[in-house]
Amino acid sequence: MRKIFLALLILSIVLIMGLGVFVFYYYPHFVKPRVAYEDAVALYESGDYVTAAMQFESMAGYSNSEDFAKRAWLEAGNESFAAGDYAAAKSYYAKAEADDLVFAQIDHAYFELGSEAYATGDSPLGESYFLCVSEGSGYRDMMDPIRINFAESLLKNDEFTAAERIFAVCGDENRDTIAGLWYACGESKLHVWELNTADSCFAKALTYSSDKDAMQQNIDALWNEAGKLALSQDNAELADKCFARGGGSYDPRESHNSAAYAEAVEAYNSGDLAGALARFSEIPDYADSAERIEELRGVLANWFVAGGAIFYATLDENGSVATYGDWEEYTAPDWQGVKKLAVGYYRFMLGINADGTVVGSGNSSWGNLNISGWSDIVDVACGDMHSVGLRSDGTVVACGRDYYGQVSHVKDWTDIVSVGAGVSFTVGLKSDGTVVAAGQNANGECQVSGWSGIKQISVGGCHVVGLREDGTVVATGLNTDGQCNVSGWTDIVAVYAGAYHTVGLKADGTLVAAGSNSYGECGVASYRDPICVSCGRGFTLMILKDGTVVKLGSVNTIEE
Questions:
Q1: Cα–Cα 20 to 30 A to 240, which of 136, 291, 415, 430?
Q2: Residues 6 or more apart in contact with residue 461 via CB below 8 angstroms
Q3: pLDDT by residue (tens digit) across 288-347?
């Protein structure tokens, strides 16, 4: 009996010890983790990724719990991202130690949300989204343009404080862009005379500008221009305020100059180009008057006058042709697009079209109007009954009466830059400054072979005049009336030869003349700055800068 009791006691002790081992060692180390793991797997499979992840994390080191936890956090992040909860997704992805591409999609989502919020005008919401974008993200460079564009719209609506809040969060690399916007805003306010607001905007522009000296110069220039404009509007008080801010000063004549400038601009805008030129010429040093004068002179250079023996023709800036004198047998041709005229010593004339072809009108009994095949013409000249054309390639064409070779002997000429025609001879100026001539030479009119340094030629009835590069003048040919007595002329910029007289334009705009003055054709001393000059038989024609056509002398002087 005692042996049985002892055996039972030993067995009980063994059982108790085994139970202790199970309870205190085996169960917590093997059974419980296994149960928890299986519960976590069940949670994962049911879609409760967050709880599963936390449970897997609580048994770190058991089986593949750590990897399973990351997978659960990743799935939790994906689920939150799909639901639009990007903050939670970002947190879960961080726990999952997700790769950069996963975080990039969150940055993109925040950027898109921020962009959409700015587009709808909700800049605070947009900025809250932009602040969630990672510092190292490439989207950072794309945010400032959106901010700046929105802030620019605020500036246009005078919401300056709101605009400045947005500008303040932009990167330093955009400070000059922001400075430019404040500058433009100040300029627009200055245009409507909101001086204090303009001042504030310019101050902001200086704050942001990387080149404060240059910015200050530009701002000062705006204030001074505004002062000039105020003067033109007879507002001296406003002008003083503007000049004080710009650090400038003004001449008492400024008001007159600005008024004259305004009148010139008004004439220009109304189409009165000659009037505009005249007004701008009164104030050549004011504002952009010098540039305007050059432009108008270029346009009005096509306002042309051409004289012959018994009539003359004019070509205005619109391409309209009019004839005056002994032209009763013909009406003025209805030419369109003509850019230059030439009048013959008898009743015919030529015109160059804009496309380089040539038109003719009048007496053609000697074939002098056989010009239908001419093309690429840049200059024309008319003799008594022959016509000459210069092509752009420097070659020459001619037709009409050819008694002295004035037509046939010019067709081999090359490198010609200008042509002229007398009664029965032809002259050409070459690109090297030398001169060639062909035709009748009874009065030495073709003796030009020794000339050099010539930049312009003009051909009269029986004499030729050449202008040298140094402003002096040479002449050859018939000199019965002193039309070749030009050797003492200096500072000449253009020459014009008539039948028996010569006119020169000096650099100061005045005119000189030599030769026959039987009809007053040399009475040019009281005129200056003509747009165009042409001399005929017994008369001088000029178009003045105000558009007036002046005729000195008499047109119908030829003996029929």
A1: 291
A2: 309, 345, 422, 423, 478, 498, 499, 500, 537
A3: 888 887 777 666 655 555 555 566 777 776 667 777 765 444 566 888 778 888 888 778
Single-letter amino acid, residue 86: Y
Here the tokens at position 282 are 């009164």
Phi-psi region of 459 (alpha: psi -120 to 50; beta: other; left: phi over 0): beta
d(CA 366, CA 559): 20
> Which helix (H) or strand (E) is 480 found in, with range?
none
Q: How far is CA 529 from CA 281, 301, 506, 524, in A?
A: 10, 13, 9, 11
Residues sharing a CB contact under 8 Å with residue 56, sequence separation 6 or more, in sequence order: 37, 40, 44, 65, 66, 68, 69, 72
Q: Which residues pair with 400 in a beta bridge?
A: 386
Q: In which residue are the tokens 């000697």 written?
A: 366
Against a cut of 0.85, is the pTM above it?
Answer: no
Q: Is 512 helix (H, G, I), strand (E, B) or coil?
A: strand
Cα Rg of the chain (Å, integer): 47
Backbone angles phi, psi at 70, to 5 degrees: -65, -40
CA distance 138 to 143: 10
